[in-house]
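Tutorial sheet, problem 5. The four components below are modelled jointly, 282 residues in total.
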Amino acid sequence: MKLTSKGRYAVMALVDLARFDTINPVSLRDISLRQGISLDYLEQIFSKLKKNQIVKSTRGTQGGYILSKKPNEIKLNNILNAVDEKVKTVQCKKESKKGCNGRATKCVTHNLWDELETHINTFFEKKSLQDLLKDNSERVN
Amino acid sequence: MKLTSKGRYAVMALVDLARFDTINPVSLRDISLRQGISLDYLEQIFSKLKKNQIVKSTRGTQGGYILSKKPNEIKLNNILNAVDEKVKTVQCKKESKKGCNGRATKCVTHNLWDELETHINTFFEKKSLQDLLKDNSERVN
DNA sequence: ACATACCTGACTAAAATGGTCAAGTTTAGA
DNA sequence: TCTAAACTTGACCATTTTAGTCAGGTATGT
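Model answer (structure tokens):
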């Protein structure tokens, strides 16, 4: 399982977007400056967010990104999946005749990681962008 | 955050140990063969488990490892911490005057990762080796 | 036309991962 | 007492992932 900066950046950027896209599209440049994330890296991230229909883009001067849906309809789960931060805890070979570790049976921890995966996914499915906005409504930055 | 093979191996090895240490210490060699984990790697893992008083060792012929406590007293949390698979989701610089990203404020997702961390830790604190033994009591391997 | 901003893909330094290898020390049992 | 089994320690390493950078584009509002 992995939960690294990419996922964090994606969430940060989208919270930023949710705050500022009410009138005009928001440029990555602005997000980059406000959130302290490299512009080039943001472009990679937004490319994936766009492919997953989480944001929409407008090109040209005054262009930028806006959210595709309302903040309460965008779950953290959607965001993290979009940037390939899928919650994956076990690397048991699926569909092979043998189970984990090349054995006939599943490794003794197999069910455990499955449970954990569900546990974490549930957490992210419940949280929406809206929830984060609310939590940080008093913040300046 | 990271949850990789090392943690999985540690749990697998301890479940194995819990099953077989009733009479004699169990050698890493045996665990290695039964669980399909490299012996050398197991040695690294058990070195840490020992430092954290999760297992005790006996040297020499017929030596090996036994659990320091009863299976129901060993929480998964203890195991994963011992092998450095601490649940860590954010790399915000602690104790610096500035918050995440070198800003004066915490990044908007700071609380989120904190919550997740608690969420996951709670999961592991509730699970003991005993629980895993029970789940797999019918297994052959 | 030109500046702004999106778009794409190749590239890379540094860190983490999942080990291996070598050289011990300790102790049970023959 | 000798020796093999088993623990102990630390260095080393190939591969993969991460977190970007860089170098080009293309589209479009003014």
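Marking note: The mean pLDDT of chain B is 82. Full credit if you identified this.
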